[in-house]
Every structure is written in structure tokens, then in C-alpha cells.
Amino acid sequence: MTAFGKAHGFEYIHNYEDFARRVPLADYDDLQPWIEGIRRGESNVLTQEAITHLVPTSGTSSARKLIPFTAGLQREFNAAIGPWLVDLFRQAPGVIGGSAYWSVTPVTDNFASGAIGERPLGWRSASRSEGQPQNPGAEVLTPLQPKGRAPISCAIPIGFDSDSAYLGGARKRLVDAIMAVPTAVQQAGSLEAFRYVTLLALLRCRELRLISVWHPSFLSLLLDALPSQWEKLLADVERGTLSCADGFRSERALRFLAKPLPERANELRAAGPLQPAMLWRELRVISCWGDGPAELAAADLRARFPNVLLQPKGLLATEAFVTLPFGAFQPLAIRSHFFEFIDAAGRVHLADSLREGAEYEVVITTGGGLWRYRLGDRVMVSGSVGKTPSLRFLGRSGNVSDRFGEKLSEVFVAEAMREVFGEDSPRPSFALLAPDEDGEGCRYTLYVEGRPQANLAEQVDQALRRSPGYDYCRGLGQLLPLRVFVIGAGGYESFAGRLASEGARLGDIKPAVLSRLSGWSNAFAGTYASVP
Length: 532
Description:
Layout: H1 3-7, H2 16-22, H3 28-39, E1 51-57, E2 65-70, H4 71-91, E3 99-102, E4 123-125, E5 128-129, E6 132-133, E7 141-143, H5 169-177, H6 191-204, E8 208-212, H7 216-224, H8 226-239, H9 262-271, H10 276-279, E9 285-288, H11 295-304, E10 309-312, E11 338-342, E12 348-349, E13 359-365, E14 373-385, E15 388-396, E16 400-401, E17 408-409, H12 410-420, E18 430-438, E19 441-449, H13 456-464, H14 468-476, E20 480-487, H15 491-501, E21 526-530
Helix pairs in contact: 6-8, 7-11, 8-9, 12-13
């Protein structure tokens, strides 16, 4: 029996009631002492099964966490990935037979300040050979030693070497075989080199059928970089050259770009850089986040690719596969993990007792050793597939901004943004609400990329005042009237860059329309639209 099982009397658990009574609801802080034991090399801590990786994750409102990964957890992921892929091929049969782009996250920690990196600054590879990890699918990381402190040892590999590794086994090998952009691009020494080589590989691929990214703005940023690099990219496609190889650890990793493609260059030249749908005429599906805080950015992609199926990803976290795309629904991945749900009154429910239209916080128990773990994501039951509830992601439960008692939650702010930026209003490509302080006092600022609509500050302020706490603080003058900051360009890039500089991994930075952090005007390039 595991150490966790002994501590919680697993031998006395015979049914769900025993389980719920003996195992308390937990967050990461509750499980961290057990995970630290795993990190030191202890076995039979949270699971009897061996821990194969500790997967780093952090997001918009939390510090870096290490999530245990086992072969059993991989099987649980695969139980959802299989039906998802089958339904994807059924919806878009033309996706079969071509190439695919699965997002690859850069691994280097040498990016310039504010760049988006795979790992937080201060971590280095403990063992590499020509840019490749010695252990397939992972590498052992050790923290750089702070002054006056002993180095921290880690006996378990941390992280995967590519995002496709989450597919596991044969599925990963299949994806790698049809990758339009090989994982070697993650070896770039700068964000500019990573983006350039990614664009070059994509442009070379006439038969691109599928694009799978996390945040839709990741793809939008790549497309936005096309005009300024267009002539150089075309020249490289035509000649089989590479004009930007800064910092790549191995020239062999770039051999896939060496074949001259003059006919493809002529096709691209005729299409131009401003119509991405014309660059990849065989593109059938774009898979990305599309619910809650990602809705605005997803709408921007739909406008760029009007005839391509944009499939919103299910709720997929480092810790668990919660929902999977299935037609127009996102059913709970009932064959993957054990799920519980907490309602607004704090009562715990099982999946078969969820009510349509109600909101819940997701709790998971997984083969990786997360026991009754509060994932921190809020969902709403939007329907069902047979008897399985379909869930729509609303936002992070713990992401609440509260300076004076206003208690603005991400779920509420996302709904306000949805109302303000309706079908008849211009939609920004990026929007973020955050507290802002200056000599006059404290207020909330809406940071938007795009041309703001008239009276936007007043519209958002009024929508937020439906929250009694915000309305009360505004009435007392504790919060000044909201204002708008117009971002010139690169909103999501700057947003993710700031979080990455504080330890977040690009793939873990989930869509957000609310930040508890202040000082975003120093991170974004732009100006205040007006100051009331």
C-alpha cells in the first residue's frame, strides 16, 4: 500500500461514502509534501505505479507545480484521445492524408527578457547531447543554484520534450510522422528564431490539413508576423535556405528545410501574406481553446479562416483530461478519471447528479496520484451526450480580484465581456481586465488590442456594476471609473511573456480575461484611450 493510502486508511474504504469521508478534498499545497517525496526518489508515495515524469505546470494565478505522471495516467488520457480523434476524422474526413501542425513549445531558457519560454528562467538541462535529451520524451532538470543555497536534487525526469508526448505511444509516433513542423524547432535560441522557422516550415507545407494549438492567439501571432518577414520567407522556401538559424543547437535538426521548393514559393507569392486561408487551401480543422476567456481570440481565427472547421478543445489540463470535443458537445471524459463536482453551496456531486444549467468546480482523482484534487476550473452543464453531461469551461475558480471587497471573478468578467463585445460590436483580438493603481487611486483597466468601440469604458463599467461588490466599491469611491488601454500589437504575446518571466510555461498559460496583477501598462505597448 502507498504511504498516502496508509495515512488515510485505504484498507477501510469499501464504497464512495468511505472514500469521501477518509480522503479530504485537496489542492496542490496539500499534496506538495507527498510530491516532494517523489521528487527525492521515494516510491509508493501517492501511487504503487512508478512515476515516469513530474510535469511542470503553472498559470495565470499560481506558482510552478509538479504533477506526477504515470503509465496509468497516460492510459487515462488515451481513453479520451481515441474518441476525440475518431470524431474529428468523422467531422472532417479530409483531414486524413495530409500533414498536421501540433503546437511545439520552445524549450530554451535563453530568450530575451519578456519572451515566451518553455521553462522558467533558472532551470537548465542536466544532460544533453547535441541538443537532444538522453532520456526519450523527457530530460532531467536541475535548478541553477541560488547564492548561499545548496542545489536541489531531483530523481525524477521533469517534463516532456514535445507537446505531442501527451498523446503517448503509437499516437505520438503517428503524429510525429506527419508533423509539418518537427519538434526540433523547439531548440531555437530566441523567440524570433522559433517563430521564423515555424512559419517557414508551415509555408513549405502545401498539404497542411490540421492545426492544433492551445490558445488561439498563438496561431494569430504567427500569422501577424508574416507580412514583415514575407520576402525573406519566400526566398528561403524557393532556395531551400534558412535565413534565421539563431541559437539552434544542431544543424541536423534543420535539414528538413533544405529542399528548394520554387513552385511552392510561386504559389505563396500569388496568394500574399494577408490571406492565410489562401496559403493552405487543404486546411480542414483548427483545434484550439474556444470557450470562456478564449472566445474572443477564437472568433478572430474564425474570421481569418472562414471555411475551416474551428473545433474548440475540450477541457484538457496537465493534471487531467476533463472533457473531449464530440460533435457540437464537450462530454465529460468518464472513462479517463474519477470525477466529483462542487456546487455553489459547497456540496459535492457525482457526474450522474449534475443539473443542466448549473455551475460546478471540477474535482479529479487520477492514476497519477492526485486524490480528490480541486482542479480550480469552473464549468457549466450545457447539455448531454446520452447520459453523459456536456460541460462548458467558464474560467478559473481561484482567479478572483478583490482589492476593496469587489470580488470580481473570472467567470463573471468573461460573461460581461461576452455581453459588451456582442455580435454587433467590433471584437478585439485580445482583452484583459486588471486592477491599476496611480496617484489618483485604484481602478480597473481594460486592456484591448484592436480598435475600441465608442464609450467602451462606460459600457464595461456598467456591466461590471451588476456585481454588488463592484457596484458598492464604485459608489463609495474606493474604485475609480474604469478606463481603457489600447494595445498597439502583440497583446497575448506580451501577456504570456510577463507570466513566462515569472515562471509560467507557454502551454500552461490558459485563456484569461481577468488578472489579479497590476502594472500591465508596463508590459503592453500602447496608450490609455482616455482617463475619466
